[in-house]
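note to self: dont lose this again. the chain is below, predicted strucutre after it. 145 aa total, dont forget to put it in the shared folder this time
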Amino acid sequence: MATHDELDAIEQIKKLKARYFRCMDTKDWDGFQGVFAPDATMDTTQEAPDIEVVTGAPQIRQFVEGSVGPVVTTHHGHMPEIEITSPTTARGVWAMQDFLKWPEGSPLRTLVGWGHYTETYECIDGEWKIKTLVLTRLRRDVEMA
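---
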């Protein structure tokens, strides 16, 4: 792959991840589902060992919407390390910080987390999608109600 093509793919993947964060935070669940490959996987087992890896874009949407639908969230992705591995595949690691605020009456008030998203990507019909996502938090500050 030529350097120009690699740089273009990296920029498209950065925009994809920005859409992931924006769609989650604005509760645009159709847009959120659209950032994933149909057979994508989401692994949050480091964060919640009792939850299994979720497979499939609709199932990932359902899982995330059910988990943070009523929660105010803000996500930031920083300093991506993206490697294009073929014309249609890539991998990346994103440093991240998130803030979650639960509604009144929840046992949790807030969570601030710092960690990484480790991902792979696939270009499907000319559009980059998240193929695999693993969330690892290195630190979390939680305020209970």
